[in-house]
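Issue 218. Parser rejects a valid record. Input:
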Amino acid sequence: MAQPPSSLNILIVEDEWIIALDIMHHLSKLGYVVVGKADCAETALELIAQTQPDLVLMDIYLQDKTNGIELAELIRQQFHLPIVFLTAHADAATLKEAIATQPQGYVVKPFEEQDLSIAIQVAWANHQAEQAIQQALKQEKQLNELKSQFVSIVSHEFRNPLSSLLLSIELLEQNSFTPEKRAAHFQRAKTAIKQMAQLITDVLVVGEVEREQFQYESEPVDIIWFCSNLVEDLQSRAKTEHNLVLTVQGCSEGEQPFYELDPKLLQHILNNLLENAMKYSPAGGQVTFQLRCEPDSIQFQIQDQGIGLTKQDQENLFTPFHRGSNVGNIHGTGLGLSIVKKCVDAHKGKISVESEVGVGTLFTVSLYAQCSVDLKGIESKCAT
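Output the parser choked on:
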């Protein structure tokens, strides 16, 4: 005899108590779990809400104002559960009415135990197949929406730096500028190229996520050197007017704590958060980057004095292509923070945000990783 699929939880809806007990006996022999028995629609709906069965076995004709066919329609609409009808009525009219409720099975009484088992297994397999199809359709719809947004935003974000690059090249061709102006045009061209390079990087990362190729590969990371090097790089290549300040807590001066992290994903996290902090802050503003080391975790806090985020924007902050309603003409794709969230999730970490419009934003990222340096008892000696 075929084995029951994963010991399904089944609710019996049958108004003949003796028949219900007989069905329960057969189901138990077959290895299924009976979560309850109901003799009317009201009781059945209550039991479904309470017990959350995998499947419902139901007699078509109940001695109730709501018959089995009407009840099946309610269950399908409210709970999306597979239903197998058990009935002594096999006439064409009854069958047509029952099929209209889209049941997963139909067994005529009296039945053989094996027939009941087969009906349940087929019903469950069909239900799982339908669920998989629905999920695939939902994902396809979401993917099509993302593709549409992607084409619109990326084309816009490429057009601006390309126009700037083309203008700089045309002006430089005139060869009539002072060395200072030539340097300024070269710098503008380099900035445009870097913008496009960053956009391509973001697109490739999003592509990896969509193809489920986003993998976490840890290695020992000298976290103070990593963050210091990142800050120096941002300060040098951005030619920013912002004051980017790194502070370290939890380890003493001269310590080199190594944490098991994925440096590639960590680069995405910190680069995006720091660049956003500078991008959305006024010139001359300070961006504070605080690193806190613990024996089994590490925390990054990035505080800016920028435009801040509305409450509504905070709710959709990590949604791909979502941009703040107050960003104005500041360029961006809305991909950065969704990438940050994926990278944090890959580390099984947490990210939170506190923000106020016109005041600034604080991002806190906590990653759980073992440190190869004993940090206990040295917080009082930490460098700040």
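Fixed in the parser; the record now loads. DSSP finds ten helices and twelve strands in the chain.
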